[in-house]
Amino acid sequence: MSEGLPTVLVVAVALVDADGRVLIAQRPEGKQLAGLWEFPGGKVEAGERPEAALIRELREELGIDVAEACLAPFVFASHAYDSFHLLMPLYLCRRWSGVVRNREHAALKWVRPNQLADFPMPPADEPLVAWLRDLL
Ligand code: CDP
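Above: the input record for the complex with cytidine-5'-diphosphate. Below: its predicted structure, written as tokens.
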């Protein structure tokens, strides 16, 4: 942890479809890191359980419902940005209800694990790519 910087907890997900492709989402104009491709998710609010935050974010951003039991073990990303330190667990999820639709991002893309490295990502997300490639 970097001294003096506030810590921000963001939860993110690798949604994996029946063909083994992973969903990535392009950050929209006007936001920090616009144009980069991230694993969907968002900030955990005070008093909120991380899994509940992820379920809420996926409903808001993608219009899907995920059962907590479908959120599998995760790996942590940790990165010091200029003004905060990001801690970001990545969950794996293969089952959801509803159809994935783009509600908040510039674009969505389903990509094979070995193609993830072709998409520029925020520095916090980048180390997760190798982990996913090995796992999937
Ligand atoms: O919507 P807002 O930008 O306030 O929050 P967010 O995008 O969900 O996450 C807060 C910050 O965490 C972003 O500004 C990024 O710097 C970082 N982040 C990241 O590095 N990778 C992600 N997959 C999501 C967020």
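Notes for the reader.
The chain has a mean pLDDT of 96.
The helical segments are 50-62, 126-135.
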